[in-house]
Task: inverse folding
């Protein structure tokens, strides 16, 4: 009922407010008009400053996509900018005998070569740096180190480049190269060229971050580990975004070179890189407009103030930066927007919403017979503590296997080792489905992609993704989604829809996962894992925090999935629930499987009684 | 022999420059890019103290105290709010560094200053003469590292610091004033940065931005240290070997670039640096 009314309310609202697409078109027209009006109002010098500000804004947007949206701490973004400018400089100048730079060639093709070479060089270096810097790692300590590693590499590279620049001859050394601005273009031409390019970039960037790929970027930023277990190729996403960001920044640098006609080591420097970070942080990382405003406003104010009070300006800039980072980490724009929203509309509002559309359950698996995963003599330790001491277990297709055992028996650890082949272990784990046989050294995303999905014991979701977005991401199963298309109708199979309905998530499509209660998070975790349509579904304590009715529905859905050929592994403490739905129970105790068999047989087993009762009566 | 002396000397200078950074990273998990700003505060503090006719060592201590004071303010108003956001700490401390350097430029002007060494002349070691003050730096550097090792290992304060580092909520739970411990650690790290800055004063041209060139190599040395003091000595020594040998072979600028690249590559292979803990 509630949803019906809601839909009506939404449609009536959208009938008198224009569609989002038209609204965005309106913004673009307004921006173009502003360009014209500002040009009429200000003098030549201001036009020059604005051109520079636009170029910086382009660089800021590229950094924002890399850092703000994908969470890659690129501390040396100036490197790409500098490469773009340097390539134009080198292509269009040559050194005279006295060592000073003279303009040697000013033909259009030289500029074109410089532009293309700069972008290519930056992209190429960024691809190499990305290959080198983004690597998955098993332990959490290392994964923190590896997340951080790219910050070290970019910081080191920008420093190395600045140092090297002054030593080299062909870069113009300490003086740099100068006097190579495009002679046929006036300041006003550049103002319009850069203004329109910036606008085009904004439109493209907005489309990107709203697209399904943008969703994946945010997922990687919010919770890299969880994204891996949803088969998302975290490293590939990072590499692509990093290289793309470098290319755009190099483009901005080339524009700078062509319009200002100057390149020196300062364009590569950590100082400029930090300034870019400041623009993005002050404007608002994770928004597109924020960094644009930040870059334009701060570079305009900066060039004004740096003439009158040069040293104070840097001081003010530094203080402002620190204050923003400490007090409004979302940046000024996002902060202001949130304030306005609260005042005018009450509550958070997402621009446009997504809905779930149920579709028929996928066809039953054709090869749904026999063993799906076999585990032989599996031994695993955390440091000195041996948790698994020789586990033997077969996980069969079309079977619901429950793993029970006292706390500390090694249940979750067993699942961890199963879904992450890079954890060093002894013994053998073998996948028997046709997509994969090897397990050892296989990353979580690679294992997930072969159709092994896992719901974590403690819900671990993406804080900036809504319910529908989370399911959409899981459904993608790691395939690279479209860079510009935005899926608003999230198709989910009938079992998934039923889980969503039973756990009360229908009607909450646009609620952020971070704002859900524990029970709702559990429901979403289960729905996301099932939505990927895995061959092997691992659910670690799925029913904790759910009501009896919700458990009942989920039990039924799981039975149906198993009937369709899925192998389901359930770790559960609710033994009544287990008795009701399990085909087979495996009892894990002190790192060994002490008993397996049908529910009735296992609960009657004396070994199990001893393990359980012994644990209870101490 | 000359090479070895150079390596030892460079190691000493690097160590003295990075030990504050290492303390703050190792014990607080905070990457303090304000290190170079604090070093500058230390050296200018020492310069000011000598203009008031303070003897060298007193001036150095004054510089360290000043940097410690600045560190206390920074910790109170910035760092304390950012423990949960490591990347933001990097950005904020860099901002602070900018503020410190610009502030010093404002007060002292951009022209280089000088600081006289307490010992002049050179000593002859195994047939090679060597600037005496550089040997002093090496000795002080090792003294500081040993003192810190003893402090963290054998004193009650050191125990608390290690508890807070290992598990901050648990340490708070058993009644340790973790805020106070972290504050002390940061102040100590800042004071050591100031001390390092002041001690390096006599062998450098003192400008507000004077330690900027060593920021990245220092930072890399600390990451390579694996957050142990023995690792720190090893990291500083090995990077100094690269620096000195390469400077002799090509020139100092290329050597800096090579040091950076070598350190980055080492970190890729050993993300946890030189540690001999069991895997």
Result:
């Amino acid at each position: 009922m509630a949803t019906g009314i809601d839909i009506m309310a939404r449609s009536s609202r959208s009938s008198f407010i224009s569609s989002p697409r038209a609204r965005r078109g309106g913004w673009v027209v307004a921006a173009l008009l502003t360009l014209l009006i500002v040009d009429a109002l200000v003098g030549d010098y201001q036009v020059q400053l604005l051109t520079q500000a636009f170029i910086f804004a382009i660089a800021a947007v590229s950094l924002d996509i890399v850092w703000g949206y994908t969470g890659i701490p690129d501390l040396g973004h100036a490197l790409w900018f500098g490469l773009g400018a340097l390539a134009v400089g080198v292509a269009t100048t040559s050194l005279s005998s006295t060592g000073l730079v003279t303009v040697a060639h000013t033909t259009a093709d030289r500029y074109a070569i410089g532009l293309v070479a700069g972008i290519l060089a930056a992209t190429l270096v960024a691809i190499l740096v990305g290959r080198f810097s983004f690597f998955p790692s098993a332990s959490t300590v290392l994964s923190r180190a590896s997340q951080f590693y790219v910050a070290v590499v970019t910081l080191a590279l920008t420093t190395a480049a600045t140092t090297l620049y002054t030593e080299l001859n062909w870069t113009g050394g300490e003086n740099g190269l100068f006097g190579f601005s495009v002679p046929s273009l006036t300041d006003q031409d550049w103002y319009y060229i850069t203004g329109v390019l910036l606008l085009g970039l904004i439109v493209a960037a907005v489309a990107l971050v709203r697209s399904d790929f943008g969703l994946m970027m945010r997922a990687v930023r919010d919770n890299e580990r969880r994204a891996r277990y949803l088969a998302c190729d975290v490293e590939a996403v990072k590499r692509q975004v990093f290289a793309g960001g470098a290319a755009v920044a190099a483009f901005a640098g080339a524009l700078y070179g062509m319009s200002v006609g100057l390149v020196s080591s300062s364009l590569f420097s950590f100082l400029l890189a930090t300034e870019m970070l400041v623009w993005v942080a002050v404007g608002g990382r994770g928004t597109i407009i924020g960094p644009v405003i930040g870059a334009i406003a701060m570079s305009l104010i900066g060039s004004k103030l740096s003439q009158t009070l040069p040293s104070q300006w840097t001081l003010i800039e530094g203080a402002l930066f620190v204050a923003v980072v400490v007090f409004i980490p979302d940046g000024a724009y996002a902060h202001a927007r949130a304030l306005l929203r609260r005042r005018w509309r009450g509550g958070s509002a997402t621009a446009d919403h997504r809905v779930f559309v149920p579709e028929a359950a996928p066809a039953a698996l054709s090869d749904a017979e026999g063993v799906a995963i076999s585990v032989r003599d599996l031994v695993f330790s955390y440091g000195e503590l041996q948790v698994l001491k020789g586990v033997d277990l077969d996980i069969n297709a079309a079977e619901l296997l429950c793993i029970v055992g006292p706390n500390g028996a090694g249940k979750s650890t067993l699942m961890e080792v199963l879904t992450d082949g890079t954890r060093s272990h002894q013994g053998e784990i073998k996948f028997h489905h046709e997509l994969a046989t090897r397990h050892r050294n296989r990353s979580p995303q690679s294992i997930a992609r072969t159709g092994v999905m896992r719901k974590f014991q403690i819900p671990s979701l993406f804080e900036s993704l809504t319910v529908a977005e989370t399911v959409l991401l899981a459904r993608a199963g790691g395939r690279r989604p479209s860079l510009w298309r935005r899926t608003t109708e999230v198709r989910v199979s009938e079992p998934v829809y039923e889980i969503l309905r039973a756990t009360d998530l229908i009607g909450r499509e646009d609620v952020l996962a971070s704002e859900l209660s524990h029970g709702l998070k559990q429901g979403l975790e289960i729905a996301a894992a099932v939505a990927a349509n895995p061959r092997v579904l691992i659910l670690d304590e799925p029913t904790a925090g759910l009501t009896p009715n919700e458990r009942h529905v989920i039990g039924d859905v799981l039975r149906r999935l198993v009937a369709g050929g899925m192998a389901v592994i359930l770790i559960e403490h609710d033994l009544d629930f287990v008795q009701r739905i399990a085909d087979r129970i495996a009892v894990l105790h002190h790192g060994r499987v002490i008993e397996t068999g049908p529910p009735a047989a296992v609960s009657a087993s004396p070994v199990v009684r001893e393990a359980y009762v012994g644990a209870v009566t101490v | 022999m000359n090479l070895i002396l150079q390596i030892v000397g460079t190691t000493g200078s690097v160590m003295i420059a990075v030990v504050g950074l290492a303390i703050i990273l190792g014990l607080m998990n905070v990457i303090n890019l304000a290190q170079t700003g604090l070093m500058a505060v230390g050296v200018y503090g020492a310069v000011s103290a000598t203009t008031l006719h303070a003897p060298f060592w007193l001036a150095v201590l004054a510089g360290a105290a000043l940097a410690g004071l600045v560190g206390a303010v920074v910790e109170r108003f910035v760092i304390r709010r950012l423990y949960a956001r490591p990347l933001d700490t990097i950005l904020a401390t860099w901002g602070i560094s900018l503020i410190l350097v610009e502030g010093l430029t404002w007060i002292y002007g951009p022209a280089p200053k000088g600081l006289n060494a307490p010992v002049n002349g050179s000593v002859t070691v195994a047939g090679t003469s060597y600037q005496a003050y550089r040997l002093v730096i090496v000795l002080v550097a090792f003294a500081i590292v040993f003192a810190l090792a003893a402090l963290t290992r054998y004193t009650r304060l050191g125990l608390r610091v290690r508890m807070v580092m290992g598990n901050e909520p648990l340490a708070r739970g058993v009644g340790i004033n973790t805020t106070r411990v972290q504050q002390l650690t940061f102040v100590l790290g800042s004071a050591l940065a100031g001390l390092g800055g002041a001690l390096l004063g006599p062998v450098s041209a003192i400008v507000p931005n004077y330690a900027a060139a060593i920021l990245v190599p220092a930072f890399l040395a600390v990451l390579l240290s694996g957050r142990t003091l023995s690792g720190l000595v090893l990291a500083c020594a090995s990077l100094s070997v690269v620096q000195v040998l390469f400077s002799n072979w090509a020139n100092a600028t290329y050597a800096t670039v090579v040091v950076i690249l070598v350190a980055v590559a080492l970190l890729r292979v050993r993300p946890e640096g030189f540690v001999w803990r069991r895997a």
Strands of chain B lie at 122-125, 128-131. The first strand of chain B starts at residue 122 and ends at 125. Chain B has one domain: 2-209. Chain B is about 75% helix and 5% strand.
